[in-house]
């Protein structure tokens, strides 16, 4: 350190770089980034669990009124975001233990997005486009 680094990293106010003559400033730059802290994970997990659940409660409610979607598929698409939301948020915590779990975060988020897109497109089509093309008297709740 003294022979190779301090010639520049010496706290000279003309050079805005870490001063390596003091141990604390070396420790500061040598710190390992361990990612998001547990307290911030806990906070963001709460916000996402409640916020995204509410979003999908309303999106799912609207989509449940769509006609022409087989009942089993409809149930699957409505439930999917909740399952993958739990997977997504648990994998944030698991990523803290092993970085490979980051893949689960991507898969979880992707599946949430996929089910959202399906519900959004079907609902928007049936509400705004289909009525202008032809009249449809099917009853979604009776699965006709
Ligand atoms: C010739 C002068 C010089 C020497 C010798 C030198 N550095 Fe640097 N170092 C710099 C400069 C200038 C910067 C700022 C670069 C920038 O910000 O783009 C820097 C930046 C750094 C940073 C990044 C600091 C930050 O805030 O992110 C670290 C870490 C570092 N040097 C470590 C070392 C170590 C360890 C040595 C010795 C092996 C060393 N440097 C030797 C000039 C030097």
Q: Class by helix and strand content?
A: mainly alpha
Q: How many helical stretches?
A: 4
For the record, the count of structural domains works out to: 2
How many strand segments? 0
Biggest pleated sheet:
none
SSE order? HHHH
Shape: elongated
> Which ranges are low-confidence, i.e. pLDDT below 50, for 5 or more consecutive residues?
none
Beta-strand residue percentage: under 5%
* Ligand set: heme C
Q: What is the topology?
A:
Blueprint: H1 23-30, H2 38-63, H3 71-97, H4 102-133
The structure holds heme C.
Structure in words:
The protein is mainly alpha-helical. Helix content is 65%, strand content 0%. It contains 4 helices and no strands. It folds into 2 domains: 1-31, no CATH class; 39-133, no CATH class. The protein has helices at residues 23-30, 38-63, 71-97, 102-133. The model has no long low-confidence stretch (mean pLDDT 90). The chain starts with 22 loop residues before the first helix and ends in an 11-residue tail after the last helix. Heme C is lined by residues 4-5, 7-9, 17-18, 29.
């Amino acid at each position: 350190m003294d022979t190779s680094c301090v010639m520049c990293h010496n706290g000279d106010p003309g050079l805005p770089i870490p001063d390596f003559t003091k141990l604390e400033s070396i420790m500061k730059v040598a710190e390992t980034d361990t990612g998001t802290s547990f307290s911030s994970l806990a906070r963001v997990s709460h916000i996402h669990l409640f916020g995204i659940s509410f979003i999908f409660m309303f999106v799912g409610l609207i989509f449940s009124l769509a006609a022409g979607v087989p009942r089993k598929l409809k149930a699957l698409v409505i439930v999917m975001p909740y399952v993958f939301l739990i997977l997504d948020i648990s994998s944030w915590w698991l990523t803290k233990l092993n970085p490979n779990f980051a893949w689960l975060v991507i898969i979880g988020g992707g599946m949430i997005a996929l089910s959202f897109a399906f519900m959004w497109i079907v609902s928007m089509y049936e509400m705004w486009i289909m009525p202008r093309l032809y009249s449809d008297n099917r009853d979604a709740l009776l699965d006709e």
